[in-house]
Structure formats: structure tokens, C-alpha cells
Amino acid sequence: MVDAARHPKVDIRTYTEVERVDGYVGNFKVLLREKSRYVRADRCNGCGECARVCPIEVPNYFDMNLAPRKAAYVPMSQAVPLVYNIDLDACIHCYKCVEACGKLEAIDFSMKDKLVWEDVGAIIVATGFSHFDPSVMPEYGYGRYPNVITAIEMERLNNTAGPTAGNVIRPSDGTNPRRLAIINCVGSRDKHFNPWCSNFCCMYGIKNAVLLKQTYPDMDITIYYMDIRTPSKGYEEFYDRAREMGIRFIQGRPSMITEDPETRNLFVHSEDVTLGRVIEREYDMVMLNQAAVPQPDVDTTSSVLNVTQSPGGWFMEYHPKLRPIDSPNDGVFLAGACQGVKDIPASVAQGSAAASRAGRILHSDQWEIEPIVAVVWEDRCVSAQGKKCGICAKACPYGAIEYEQGKAAHVVTAKCHGCGGCVAECPHNAITQMHFTDAQILAQLHALLAERPEEKILAFRCHWCSYGGADLAGVSHFEYSSNERGLRVMCSARMDADFIYEAFRLGAGAVLYSGCHPQDCNYITGQRLGAARAERLMKAFEKMEMTPGRFRVEWISAAEGDKYARVINEMQAVLNSIPKEKLMEEIERLRPEMEKRARRLREVPQVEEALEYSRQLEIAMVGEEA
Amino acid sequence: MSDKWTPRIVVFQCQYCLYSEADQKWMDTQLPPHIKLIQVPCTGRISPLFVLNAIQGGTDGILISGCQPEKCHYKEGNLGARRQLDAFRRFLTYLGLEEGRIRFAWIDVSERGRIQQELAGLEKTIQAMGPITRLATRAIPVGEKR
Amino acid sequence: MNHQPETFADQVRAIPGGEHLELCYSCGTCVSKCMIQQKVEPEYNPRRLLHKVMIDLDQEAFADKTTWLCSACDLCYPACPQQIHISKVIGAIKQLAVEAGLTTYLQTAVVNELTCVACGLCVEVCPYEAITLVETSVMFRGKAVTVARVDPNRCMACGLCAASCRSASIGLVDKFSNEAVVAELWDWIRSPVVEVTA
Ligand SMILES: Cc1cc2nc3c(=O)[nH]c(=O)nc-3n(C[C@H](O)[C@H](O)[C@H](O)COP(=O)(O)OP(=O)(O)OC[C@H]3O[C@@H](n4cnc5c(N)ncnc54)[C@H](O)[C@@H]3O)c2cc1C
Ligand code: SF4
Ligand code: SF4
After folding, report:
1. Looking at beta carbons, which residues of chain B come within 8 Å of C72?
2. Domains (range + CATH), chain B
3. ipTM
4. pTM for this entry
């Protein structure tokens, strides 16, 4: 930290919050709120006279409230920069500090928060994690029994710079505990609270046990665990060492802690899974390894940076395997525990990687993006004609569309990731997607349904998941009906209702609408957009009394080749079950309605040319008479 | 009344009653001879007949110890016991039995040492009342022929 | 597609309540939350029973005392970190055991049909709906005599019926029968330590 502060090219802004981020990769504008300390950084020399004279004491958050601090304070002795701070919530305005500061005149009660805009090329988010509050689990008595403490409190107690100078004592009576229980997975791996594994508590539990055993060799330490997870280099060896030192491990999740009201000793009830028997053991102190949870303000950070969250509230990476450091928002990178719980070595590795990813942007004058982007036909956009709309802007998962009534919607190309959601949602067909234009897709559709369409199963597949599923079905030799015809788009968000109507107008026997499972979507919320549309379509077809099963919606991952094959075969079975005349009758009955609903498609630029082209193709394929 | 008088007490305990291990051990092995522990599957099993027998046999105090509401091993046995035995207690009071002789204790496993407190509390109440006189009429079991 | 033969675990899962069985990661919370092992039956272990199901040891699961002893008090359910409704899973195992022709090893409640007047009090108090009033083949004044009857596979032997019966016609046997408890009481009352003096 001190090194970083000294570096000529590193500018650290502490006590500062990011309020707003505009712009895009390479050209962000960031609004910073520099909160006022009521002490002027340019004058304070960190002597601490103000804190010495301040009469007000409040619990020190940094010491987990185990020790006091003054209203004039630095959060910790290694703070960078070493500038004091006045806690106005606690201050009684006695102005003793002003006196003590004397000629330096660093204390200034009239200071106001400062708002500044900064230009930045890339952003790294490293906001870390927070701690689960075990007092919501009454069975462990945290908050009720003084000698039940959390791991982070133990970290402070067992720290020579901590409130007790490293003397580990029982809060109830100040004696050194002789018997200590450490309980793992408190609030982790628990569906009532946090289903995830908090990743580092097994190891820091063992670390604390080893450190304590070194300082207090007579201390009797027992770790209660469900599974011990030692997944990195040297960790298993460390676990071995802990056992060699005499630290006990009991497999079994305690169901309850009770307290002797006189001695304040604690009794831990658990099953010893190895023995298959319930045991109750007495301890002087219990340490709870509480779950790591996202920061409480994670939603604000998410919306300011336009970075989405994975289930649970951790920031979502672009791709879990291939782009684990990039966020879905280009130019914003993730490092450390904010992206998912990880220990220090992993956090540092990810931080270094994020820095070099960000460096690539800062060192380039040009930035390449995928060419699959949305483009607005400005003359068709109704907003340009003064009407209220903005549907596209709402559909975009990346906030890439700038909408203002009276002006044509504008796609910020650098932000567009090419899901095609806006293209499909626009009711006026005023947006198209490069490389997946309406015309191109229509041409494919016509070609696929050129011959005996009533026998065909037209399958819309998303590039990342169901297309992969179909691919896997192929390479795995899962047999499925040869009447299936696949049509690839980037995301289920791109599967325009018009395409489905057009397919049925052309007489398709059945249509499959398939994409990723919601949590797998490559475009954050693209699948949700597609799913909502599919639901509307399903209802519409129900109303039209279409035979159930002719239109089907399925979410199929790239690993579910078997599911892809099964779905297609089931659809084939549906087709087989409808008598041919009845099917033809239904197709004819619905054709006018489909025609009506798909009519807008014909207005789209280039569609006529494309259709002419595909007609030629058909003729080449099946002869003039088709 | 002589100081040497020790009250006789019967404790009806449900076999799942949530005492901690240490307390249960104390109940099983260290109970003084003037206190009799009778275990039943559930407080709901305690028939008024048992209470009547104890009273008529001259027991000075009765402690009925069960699990807390919602924590009954048989879903609602303790609630049934409470309803039935409380009504029975009121009936005995009507017949002239002093109120404090029958005591209920609904104990949770986290309440270490509560059973000892309850017993001591009952004993104190009874000491103040003296030996049972009302209703302690028979020297043979209810239902048995004289 | 890939149809595998139905396993024992599948059978348990197919019964409502048995679904989430496979989520159990053997933490043992349920075992230490439950009082049966600590107080009554050292072999009682729901965690192990669930594991037996998962590895298809159906006969062992049926023979496990846990299958028959769980009284569905649901102390464990709110404690299970995997939110498995353990008593329902055990109920499903028990149902399969009963279907396989097994019966409980518990000493369940018995009715004295000669004195039962079919007042129905016991039917009301039974937490397990194990008691029904049934007509016997005995005729009295032109009508079939009705008596209470206990379904041994539902009865958990809590004794609530015994405490409620006004004619002492239903009850537990052996240790927890009216006679045994009253006798134990009187043994103590008559014992020299506490000789009746009143
Ligand atoms: C009790 C305990 C013991 C541990 N022991 C070990 C150990 O021995 N070895 C090990 O490898 N790991 C250990 N860990 C894990 C270690 O703490 C984490 O791996 C590490 O802290 C993650 O680093 P980070 O930088 O991602 O997040 P953090 O350390 O959480 O840092 C995030 C920072 O961002 C700041 N911040 C948050 N929100 C904002 C915002 N909106 N604006 C500006 N700043 C913000 C926070 O104030 C904080 O300073 C332990 C964890 C615990 C709980
Ligand atoms: S790291 Fe260990 S203690 Fe922490 S949640 Fe995972 S399994 Fe539990
Ligand atoms: S508490 Fe739940 S997860 Fe744990 S052993 Fe019991 S059933 Fe399994």
C-alpha cells in the first residue's frame, strides 16, 4: 500500500466513492465523490494530537468493535495516506482538536464533499466481500453467549497490533481459554442463508488453530467440519501439520451450542459422523467461521458500473472459463473476492491479471470488437418522428442504447455485444443486426422450409447453448429425427416473433424455440427477454387453437446433447400423431392470421431482395415448380 | 412441624424432554431418594390417573416436566397434556388441594440446570405448605380393592 | 432416452416428500438435533438411513430402527442446511417397507374391545391419525358393535390415547401400561425411605 502510494503513476483516492460512470471502453468518464474528512490532507502531518485530546470514544470498526477509537481518528495505523478524520456522527464540537492542531490549521469543519469527473480508460472492480452475521442463527448463540466469537474477531484478538496486543482472552472474564472449538461453514453451504462454499474458511480455521497452538501449546483445539477443503498448493500439507500438532478434527456440523450460565463455558452438540454418535463437549470459547457474503452495497456498485451479478450477488464474469477476469461490460475488470470468494493468493493473481487486461486497453489507440452489432434504421425509428418508445433501450442488457424522445435511438457500438434483443423487440423493425439481419434470417428460413414444410421441425438455436447442444447430439451419435432443420442466431433474444409467424405461415410442421438456461446466458439477461417473448407466443398460439406441441420452448445447454435429441424426437412424435389432412387443414386455417402478424417483416429494407435471392435458390434446389 | 420433614416428590418426565446430557445424567443417577422419577414416552401419556394415585398415596408435590411447545417429539403430545392435566389440576384445587403442589416445567435443551431449579422451587413451595393433608386418603392404589 | 432401471433411491424419490434425498451431504445436524439417539435408541441415525437409500441398500434401510422410530416431530427439518424434509423422506421409506410387507417393531397401542365404547376421544387426540372406529361382526340390539382400532404402522406409541381414554380401554403395553406405571409409583410410595406417614 505504501509502495503503491509512492509510485509516481499511481494515484490513490481513499475515502472516495464512485457515483457515476459514463462512456465506454477506453473512454469512461467517472464521477467521484471525495468525502470530506474535516481534516485537510495537504496540511495534516499525521501527528495524532487531535486524537489524543478528543474526549469522545466510540467502538473501533477496524478492531471489530472490540476496542475504542476517538471521534478524531485514523482507521488503522498503516492507513494510506496517514491523514486523520473527524467522525461527525460522534463529534460533540468541543473543538479541542482544533486547538491541539494549532499552527498547522489542518482541521476544517466547513469542509464539504467534493465531486470531480475523471477520464479513465479502464476500470477494475476489487470491492471484496463482507461477513455473514451469525446472530441470525440462534442455535449458535452468537451475540447471546459472550464467549462465542467470529473468526474475524479472533483475527483481531490474535494480532499483536490488535486490541489485546495478541493476548487471546475470553470476553466474559478475560482469562485465556484452554479449550477452543472452531466451527466451519457457519452460514455457508446452508440453503437457509448462503448456499455457496466460502472457500477460505477451512484454511484460515486451520491457520488460526496452528497459530494459537504455537502461542499456547496447551490449548486444546477442536475443529468441527463437514468437509475440509484444501484445494491449493501446499494446503493439504498444512492440514497434515495441524493434525500432527494435535489439533482435533471432528466431522459433524454442530446443531447447537449451549452455555453454562455460571461458568460461561460452552457445550457444543454435534454428531461425530465417524462414530455415528451424538457428542456434547465442553469448551471455554467457540470461534465461528462465518460465511463470506457480498458487500452490502453490491447492488449500487452493480448499477453504477453496469456490471451484473451471478446468483448470490458476486459480480459476474464474462465467461467462467475463458474470460474470468473481464466483466460483461467491456473495459471493466474484476479482481478478488468481489467476483467470487477467493483467498489472498487467488485474489492477487486475479488482480495482476486484471491490471494487465486493463493495460492492453490503455496502450491501444484502437480497440477491436465483434462485428455483430445492432444498427438503427434512423428513418424507421418512431422516436425520430417524435413518438414515445424506447423499447430497445429497455431491452438492452448492456445499456448500450441511448434513447431520447424526438431523436432516433442510438446504439453505442462500443458497448453493443450483439445479442440482438433490441432488434427482435423493436415493434417497428427499425433496428437490424449486422451479420444476422432480418433479411438474412428470412432467406435461410425460406430455404429451410422450401420443400414439404409440413414435415419439418424448424429449430431456432442460440449460438452459445442449444446450438452447442445440437452439435453435441451429433458428435455423440444421439439419434434424432432427420426432419429437424436448425437455424442459428446469437441469442434467444434475437428470435423475433415475426420469424416464428413467418415459419408457420410457410407451413412449418413444428417450431422449436431454444436457448440457454437463464443462468448460462452469454448476454446477461438476453435469455430472459427471449423467454418472455416465447411465453407470449405460446399464449397466442393457444388462443389460435394450434395443436399443442407444434410450438415448443426449451432451454438446452451445450452439454445437453441428449436433451436436444430427446426434444426433437418428442416433437416428431407430436407431428406423427396428427393426421396429415388435419395438419394441412390447421396450417391453412392459421395462414391468414400468421400472414397478418408477420406482415411488418416485409417492410424491412433488403427483405425483398433477400427473398428474391432465396427464391432463386429454391428454384435451383427443387426446380421451377416449387 | 419438625425440621426433619422432607417432602416426597414425584417427577413425571417425558423420555425426550430436552435436558442437556449432564442434566439428564443427574436426573438418572443423582436424584435424592425422596424424589421419584417416572419416565413416560411423552407428557401426553400422563394420565390423570397417575396424578391421582400419587396424590392419594400421599405425595407432597408433583413435577410434570416436558418439552417446550412446538418441540414435542410426538408433534402435539405436550399440548394435549397441558390441556388435560391443567384441567385436572384445577379440579383438584376445587376439591381443596393447594395450588402449588402440581407444577409444570416445559424445558428446552439450551436451558442448562433448569430442571434442578424447578425441583428446588417446587420443594420450597411445598416446604412452606407442609405435608399434604387433603386427598391423601388411601394407602393402596386407586382401583385396587381394599 | 437413457433409461436406467429404477433404483431404490428412485422409488423413495417418487413418493411425495422423498424428493430431495440426494442433497444430503452427511453433515449430521439432524442426528444431533434429534433426541431419539441420545435418549432412547443409540442405533437411531437419520443421516445413515438416507445414505443407505442413496446406495440402494433397501433391505438394510427397512431393517433400520430409524425407519420405524422417526415420529415426524420435525426438529431436524428447520436445522438441515440442505433443507431436506427428513421426516418425509423417512416416511417414504417406511411406506415402501410397509408395501414390502414389513411391520413396525414398536410395541404399539392395543384396544380392549370388550370395554371400548367407541366414544372416539382417542381418535381425536392421536397425533398420527392411527386410530379409526370400525364395526365388528358382533351384533348388539340389531346393530354391529363399533370399537377403536389401531393401525400399527401409523402408531408411534406415544400413549396419548391411553391418557385420554375414560374407560382405560386403550393403552400401551409392558413398561408404559397404566398398571406398570401405577405399580412403580406405589412401590416407591410404600418403600421404607418414604414411608407413608400422613
Ligand atoms: C477471518 C479471515 C481470515 C482470513 N485469513 C486468510 C489467510 O490467512 N490467507 C488467505 O490467503 N486469505 C485469508 N482470508 C481471505 C482474504 O481475506 C481474502 O481472500 C481477501 O481479503 C480478498 O481480497 P480482496 O482484495 O478481493 O477483498 P477485500 O480484502 O475485501 O478488499 C476490498 C476492499 O474494497 C473496499 N471497498 C468495498 N466497496 C467499495 C466501494 N464501493 N468503493 C471503494 N472501496 C470499496 C473495502 O473497503 C476493502 O478495503 C481470510 C478471510 C477471513 C474472513
Ligand atoms: S471453505 Fe470449508 S468451512 Fe468454508 S464454507 Fe467451504 S467447506 Fe465450509
Ligand atoms: S441435516 Fe440434512 S444434510 Fe445434514 S445429514 Fe441430516 S439430512 Fe443430511
Report:
1. 75
2. 9-129 (3.40.50)
3. 0.86
4. 0.83
